[in-house]
Write a structure and sequence with these properties.
Number of domains: 1
CATH architecture: Alpha/alpha barrel
CATH class: Mainly Alpha
Oligomer: single chain
Helix content: 40-55%
Largest sheet: 2 strands, antiparallel
Number of strands: 4
Strand content: under 5%
Distance between the termini: 30 Å
Strand order of the largest sheet: 1-2
Length: about 325
């Protein structure tokens, strides 16, 4: 049952499925059927980065969002309710049920709840809306630290976004999570969200793409990476920053994915998926997307897969992605 989705792009050797030991044959098919991935997510009762690790907020949120967008409202509501159960009285959501800080997953929890509030069972919506209100109120007051400008640091350190941990500098990925979440919750014009968008644009590298948050350190321009670039493009989609680096960042993503396909290079699953999501948010999903996703899924199925990776693969399989898709259906 599991082997029909376990395709590998190009000429690759047969490998074994972790669950049944069946041979996974190479395939040149270009359509990504997510039926089995969604079946696995729907059946999961553990949402974590690793099958044997603790349940965690981020994998749970992405799994909730994936199930909502793939027409599984009841399964999504189950995860949304778990996230609500671990929400703190202040509105924040920690990394796990037992690790209350840092609280950067709060933005992702809002995204998950928003999808269930629209697509989920009616009986779940009142409680979910309450969780959203508390989380939004907390998020709008949460701030990364700002610092005076320094000549040896390339980005504008005075712009305030969101941080990985309290009382630390603002970084790209947590700012992306909160910007996406607050835009989804109807707060796009709030000054905090607008400043977050300004931060994301400021942190783009001169020739496109972005690193974890810095642009230059001690005169050296840093290298771009797929995951933060993809997230930044997701968060900036539908806005008009008027900066050529956005277009350059989209070209960087497209080139990296095309090069990986041309050379049969296996990309890290999360990097691949966020890169595809960033392009899809701008309606530029590449023709090689399904082939890359098939290879990534086959790789993940060589061992017991994590909910985190399955959820990202399911989301990246969507031909388009954006806040309108998530909220309006």
């Amino acid at each position: 049952m599991l082997s029909f989705l376990c395709h590998v792009a190009r000429e690759q050797p047969t490998i074994k499925c972790w669950m049944h030991g069946c041979d996974i044959q190479p395939s040149t098919e270009t359509s990504m059927d997510t039926t089995q991935i969604i079946t696995q997510l729907r059946a999961a009762d553990h949402w974590g980065y690793h099958p044997n690790g603790p349940m965690a907020s981020e994998p749970a949120a992405w799994a909730c969002l994936a199930l909502s967008l793939h027409g599984e409202p009841d399964a999504a509501a189950t995860i949304a309710n778990w996230l609500a159960q671990i929400q703190q009285p202040c509105g924040a959501v920690g990394v796990t049920a037992n690790q209350l800080a840092p609280t950067w997953p709060t933005g992702l929890a809002i995204l998950a709840w928003e999808s269930v509030a629209v697509h989920g069972p009616i009986e779940s919506r009142a409680d979910i809306l309450q969780s959203i209100r508390k989380a939004v109120d907390w998020s709008l007051t949460e701030r990364g630290n700002s610092n005076p400008r320094e000549p040896h640091i390339g980005h504008d350190t005075t712009i305030v976004g969101w941080s990985w941990a309290a009382q630390t500098h603002s970084w790209i990925e947590p700012t992306c999570f909160y910007v996406l979440a607050l835009r989804a919750a109807g707060h796009e014009n709030h000054p905090r969200v607008q400043e977050g968008l300004r931060l994301l644009t400021d942190r783009l590298l001169p020739t496109g793409g972005c690193n974890y948050g810095n642009t230059q350190v001690l005169g050296q321009t840093l290298l771009p990476h797929l995951q933060p670039t993809g997230l930044a493009m997701m968060a900036l989609a539908g806005t008009s920053p008027g900066d050529n680096r956005v277009e350059a960042s989209l070209r960087y993503l497209a080139t990296e994915l095309q090069d990986a396909d041309s050379s049969s290079r296996l990309l890290p699953t999360a990097s691949l998926c966020f890169g595809l999501l960033g392009l899809a948010a701008h309606h530029r999903r590449p023709a090689v997307a399904d082939r890359l996703l098939q290879a990534a899924y086959a790789h993940e199925m060589q061992q017991e897969p994590s909910t985190y990776k399955l959820a990202l693969l399911a989301l990246a399989s969507k031909e388009s992605w954006g806040l309108g898709l998530m909220i309006d259906g």
